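Action item from last meeting closed. Structure (120 res):
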């Protein structure tokens, strides 16, 4: 199982930006970010295929979030701009070996999560 460690969460005012990082112990076919807001189900936010570079975004973050990766160093980032209170959640770095997309079931490795808070 891939070991994943997130960093970069915090509290930021609405309209601000944060950059999340994820260090992985090894490469995976698909890596990405999943979030869970209080009282809500986990939601796939953004993923990237490490082979093709194809990216997938939830409609709620398109145009505001950008996922990128450094395959040589097994590092993943999520640049989050124009943050909104509804982006408040725990953000998990995830990895999977088969296919790529936003379906939660694809991901077999999960990090511990990092809190992102955007106050009203």
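Sequence:
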């Amino acid at each position: 199982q891939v070991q994943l460690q997130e960093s970069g969460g915090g509290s930021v005012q609405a309209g601000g930006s944060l950059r999340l990082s994820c260090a992985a112990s090894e490469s995976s076919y698909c890596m990405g970010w999943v979030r869970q807001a209080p009282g809500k189900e986990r939601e796939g936010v953004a993923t990237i295929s490490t082979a093709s570079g194809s990216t997938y975004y939830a409609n709620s973050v398109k145009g505001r979030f950008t996922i990128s990766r450094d395959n040589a160093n097994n590092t993943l980032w999520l640049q989050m701009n124009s943050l909104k209170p509804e982006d408040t959640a725990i953000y998990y770095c995830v990895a999977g070996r088969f296919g790529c997309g936003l379906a939660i079931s694809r991901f077999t490795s999960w990090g511990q999560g990092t809190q992102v808070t955007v106050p009203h």
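Note appended to the action item: The chain has a mean pLDDT of 96.
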